[in-house]
């Protein structure tokens, strides 16, 4: 049976690193190559030994596909391609290609410079890895080779995130990466057509959650900022250039206008340049509304938000500052943090995840004394707020996506095994499809039922129609018989006679015979006659003929009588039937007296079984 | 700013939203796939909700957001979501759901018959809620479902009418007590006021008080004289006080030992657009003095302070009104609140659910104390 194999190397019952292997139609594809942010040793990388014990991965993989720029999906890519070794194509969308190397480099710097690690990829490796990248456009089918094709769909979540369809022949798999089903302020919602893949591989990190509304998250953000400003404090918001920063700026601007607030809001110029640059490049990736604004003007032109100058950090009074980098690990945001950390009226709002080793990570873990360069310590007195704005699908979102794509099977990765039995049951019940949840290193095998298109001869079709009966229907297929001929690359269903003709073969008939002995003193013709009469009386509804050539025929079964040479009352019945007769049981008890056959014949003719039990 | 941004943000920066910055300490808004009529605490941090459509429904046990409980390090906790810790499927609607204290069992009734379904909410090894038994009602046919009260870990008090209330031993099915009354009044509530003394509140305003240890006749307190035609009544008792609320918004507070006398009256400001006996809830705050919450008349949950009510019936205004469901509703139909519960310990934390599937967790600010 044809089958598709899926093996999570990371993800699959473990939140932290996504890396999934798919074998489909003889092709091997790696989906994502993430880093587990919680480990410091080799456990942070996916276990590539599953693919091969030693050596490069190039000959084992047809391609690698990266869904988006988050480190838990692409963090191990340079390690895989340059340190383990892979030279084949790496597919990702244009924005992902532009942003990935920046995040990887930041991550590398933190890990090597801050944490002093040595077994890590270098800047050059990141560059070499990116040279292997082939960018993808949305909804465009890309031929990886003659048989394998891939297509990217919009996933929402972050700029450039994609869901990918992988197709070989008539078998296909869709991998969702991270996605969300509700539109964002600056991103749309994920969308896919009813492509009916054999397997839908979905992220399920939040499958067992019900998300708090965006409204409430935004309310919390505004409330915190407002409270700080009201007490004269300063608010630092470290951000990465894209996405959330822009959204939070718009939110604050509207709020300031509405509440008639006067405190200044700043963003660092590095931030705006980068953001503008990326939005210009990837305008098609944001939602309609942002696109409209951007076309009209520079999206960072605000009434209440101004460009920051480092000297402003020392100004008295309340203010809000957006600065990069996002994890407080270097640069302007860290400088401002150092100045403001000592005052409890101030606040720092972390809008996203921080990698281990950064100041951001430390303060989010409650650390209130930080060791800085030159052995000095910094007392963290300001208020620390961790807010999550990331957009993920929840239980409802997964059901919506399944409804959209209509997969034949479901496979959940990136979640917690035990606690998903309910969701598994829910999916199986609502959609009547199997739901698989393989663990890391465990392979889920899904048998597929690929449909094979076949031409049918008109004569055969007409003959079948003439048989009457119900017309075939997708819910009630109708079985028919014919001969399948494969000529060049086409398949044809024809009648057996036509097949024989086309192949230049003669038809052969198979006939089976058996001999049954019985005692009957009558003459041969008389015995035959008695048999004929008897059969006629018990086998009603069958064609029974007594032919002039001295045979009795029951449908296509031939019966002949002859006497044994030694004893004329020992009759030999010759029964002969063709291959069409499936079962033929002859059960005969001959009486000792002159009565003829007493118990008789179980004959199955063709597909019909007639039971005759005659005493 | 471009126009588009204004309209884009007007939808979130509406008046209610701006107001909420000052009027709520915490506010969480969720959307279930299907609306629920029940919210029942299964522990200090988990609740059960269940659908009420006519065919298959989900029963979910939800863990409240961690952020709500992270009192000292609240800022460092970003977890704002409900976690679905357990889930199961019910064949019919769930109109009443009660947790059996000290166990991992919940009991449900579908509002169509008086039989109860018993469920086991899985432990750490499984996230599935399984049907593990049933309890037969006294009379099999009834219009309107059963009310359920669970005093101890092995007993259930249930019934749809005052004439068929019984106390059943959960494990054996043995009937330990039956309430004998002359009339078969449909019930709107059933609750215990002590280990063995319970209150059966009828829709017509009658209240029966009985002790399950004795076979003595129950004490009947007829409903207050209602003004405004035939009305329905709901009851709640707590710490020796009983409140009765009518479908016309009339509220009466009495002492449990003397139900016939009214301690105070009030005419509540409930705009009763519609009044379904299944949806109205009135409840005393467990951790606040003299506060009640009222819901089911509209898309709001109202908090009233009963200590300001007098012996003369007067119009009163709510101390606080949670209008979140009506304001946030995406549906075209008028949304109404289907259930609410107070947190057992946190004084001003409530959960409320509405007909559009929304569930809110809110911690309101008492403006009068500021």
UniProtKB/TrEMBL annotation, chain A:
Cellular compartments annotated: Cytoplasm; Nucleus
Molecular function GO terms recorded: hydrolase activity; metal ion binding; RNA endonuclease activity
Tagged with keyword Nucleus: yes
Biological process annotations from GO: regulation of RNA splicing; snRNA processing
One Pfam family here: Lactamase_B_6
Gene3D superfamilies: 3.40.50.10890, Ribonuclease Z/Hydroxyacylglutathione hydrolase-like
Keywords: Cytoplasm, Hydrolase, Metal-binding, Nucleus, Zinc
Beta-Casp domain segment(s): 245-363
Domain Metallo-beta-lactamase stretches: 16-229
Cofactor: Zn(2+)
Stated family: Belongs to the metallo-beta-lactamase superfamily. RNA-metabolizing metallo-beta-lactamase-like family. INTS11 subfamily.
Name of this protein: Integrator complex subunit 11
Species assigned in the record: Sander lucioperca (Pike-perch)
Gene for this chain: ints11
From TrEMBL, chain B:
SUPFAM superfamilies: WD40 repeat-like
InterPro entries documented for this protein: WD40/YVTN_repeat-like_dom_sf (IPR015943), WD40_repeat_dom_sf (IPR036322), WD40_rpt (IPR001680), Wdr73 (IPR042795)
Cited SMART domains: WD40
WD repeats, residue ranges: 337-370
GO terms of biological process kind: cytoplasmic microtubule organization
Recorded superkingdom: Eukaryota
Swiss-Prot/TrEMBL keywords: WD repeat
One Gene Ontology term, aspect cellular component: spindle pole
PANTHER family: WD REPEAT-CONTAINING PROTEIN 73 (PTHR46947)
The protein's name: WD repeat domain 73
Organism: Sander lucioperca (Pike-perch)
Gene behind the chain: wdr73
